Amino acid sequence: MIPKIEKSSLEDIKAFQEQKLLEVLTYVNEKSEFYKTLFAKEDISITTIKTLDDLQLLPVTTKEDLQKYNDDFRCVPTNEIIDYAATSGTLGEPVTFGLTDNDLERLAYNEAISFDCAGIKEGDLVQLMTTIDRRFMAGLAYFLGLRKMKVGVIRIGAGIPELQWDSILKYNPTYLITVPSFLLKLIEYAENHAIDYNNSGIKGAICIGESLRNQDFTLNTLSKKITDKWDIKLFSTYASTEMSTAFTECEYGIGGHHHPELIIVEVLDDNNKQVKNGEPGELTITTLGIEAMPLVRFKTGDIVQFHDQPCACGRNTLRVGPVIGRKQQMIKYKGTTLYPPIMNDVLNGFENIETYIIEISTNDLGTDEIVIKLAVKEQSEDFLSEIKDHFRAKLRVTPKIEFTTKEVLTKLVFNPMSRKPIHFFDLRKKM
User: Fold this and answer.
1) Strand (E) or helix (H) holding 221
2) Could you give the CA distance from residue 146 to residue 121 in angstroms, rounded to a whole number?
3) Dihedral sign computed on CA atoms, order 138, 141, 145, 146
4) Quick one: pLDDT at residue 48?
5) Disulfide check for 49: which of 54, 119, 179, 301 has CB 3.0–4.6 Å away?
6) Would you say 150 and 125 are in contact if contact means Cβ atoms under 8 Å apart?
7) Would the pTM count as exceeding 0.85?
8) What is the DSSP letter of 5?
9) Beta-strand runs (E) in 4-113
10) Per DSSP, what are the bridge partners of residue 368?
11) β-strands 281-287, 298-304: how paired?
12) How far apart are CA 377 and CA 33, in angstroms?
């Protein structure tokens, strides 16, 4: 069921969001110590903010603000916090987010309309292959959303292909929620144990944590490796703890749909000015309907593009394209700007590579240095030359490449303290 606002005209969506913006500004100006202090310091009267364009009059909020003033963002007494979630800490100290009972209901609504967007309906059965513990908001959100939809959930958690297949064959789920690279491990296990995965009843997978598509929405190398073998539909869903909102693909696979009743979105340049749709910039969000820790003009650190061409699914909302990269992970290498996802795509194209990590450091000249460490099935000078040639053709530069063992890299990639595989390690000196 598509929410009425998401099928409304662009003018009605804008008017709706402007009313919601006034409500959230009034709320944080009264309840949030951080925003009360910020608005007073900047001599801002919220009565001057009447339209979405007026957001430019407000300062942005950063991850550093959240880390430094975490408790000052909370707008409700501690006894009203029902659940505590935390960010992953990928780019610094984790930040705690408390959620009220209403916030949990909002989270469930968000995932329900997102999963509906991807085609999950009442009567489906979903295998949840992500953690629901460790203060991980997404795992809890998935469970709450599916429950709200009256969709059955099998809570397996991450990893262990044998257990995943035992559950798939026993309970016959129709959809999986997983990190997409893990689907390759499921395929490998199935092939080694004579499991006919194409007749397993799985129709699709909702994929988190890794990109599925290139910027033109064609399947990237990882997605092709999966779908060339397993005839299932892949859907990308993108979210963060700070947003408490997901952008999920519909069947047409041309970006994650925006839910205007839950979040206001901007894409900003380095001067915090709105870029044109279709141009890359930093996703910046203002949350709607959150009680405990609403955010105003929060810069997520993710570089994305907006798309506003009509979608055949009937939604008139903006769509967020595949994440180009994290702003703090941008690499300047030999005059070329790179983000880890484009290097991942190059490396995922080699069947001989078992696993890898990308390390970025600062060299003696003060510039970025890239070292890619590989575990491969067969090591040879010819293969090394092939990789270097491929990087040169795709990215115009060739990073330093070192071979090591799968055992060494697996411990780094699958850190037990992490919620998803880690392939990128930023060792640069912080200024």
Assistant:
1) helix 221-227
2) 9
3) positive
4) 93
5) 54
6) no
7) yes
8) G
9) 83-86, 96-99
10) 362
11) antiparallel
12) 56
